[in-house]
Amino acid sequence: MNKQEKTQEIDRLLSVLNANTKIYLADCSSLSVEKVNQLRRACYDKKVSMSVVKNTLLAKALERANDSNLAQLIPALKGQTALMLTETSNVPAKLIKEFRKGGDKPQLKAAYVEEMIFIGDDKLDSLASLKSKNEMIGEIVGLLQSPIQRVIGGLDNKTKGGEEAAA
Predict the structure, then answer these.
(1) Domain of 49: which CATH number?
(2) 31 and 90 part of one domain
(3) Residues 123, 136: one domain?
(4) How confident is the model at residue 100 (pLDDT cuts 50, 70, 90)?
(5) Is the pLDDT of residue 136 over 70?
(6) In degrees rounded to 5, what are phi and psi of residue 78?
(7) Which domain holds residue 167?
(8) Cα 29 to Cα 27: distance, rounded to the nearest angstrom
(9) One domain for residues 88 and 112
(10) What is the pTM of this model?
(11) Region class of 120: left (phi > 0), else alpha (psi between -120 and 50), else beta
(12) Are residues 116 and 145 in the same domain?
């Protein structure tokens, strides 16, 4: 890769990093080609973009990113790095967790989710338990509907009780 190609790749990575708020870095180094392809397929099915990147180029892009917090991810760039991008904050963590039931890879190196930095594989459970925007909206709607449903149910029971007493 010549200098111009490296510059283009850094610029591409920089634009990708600036456009995403949910970034995962994973280690897939001990996976076979077949397993990596299975992981890529699973990522594609869940609308997660996954690509293997060069650490030095990614580090330069992280340094130049609009959000200065992304530079905190640089120490995690050791070994082979898979860059995972998504719209739903917990999907990559769930994918990694599900995929490695048979072994210890892939491992989470670091993540940047909703302006928070997570470093290390021990944060995987925390990331997997995060609720997505749609899940949070569903819970709020459910909480808002609950009192209304109780009032309607109470009125309905009172009406049925009055009809049975009249019969």
Answers:
(1) 3.30.70.1730
(2) yes
(3) no
(4) confident
(5) yes
(6) -130, 140
(7) 131-167
(8) 6
(9) yes
(10) 0.77
(11) left
(12) no
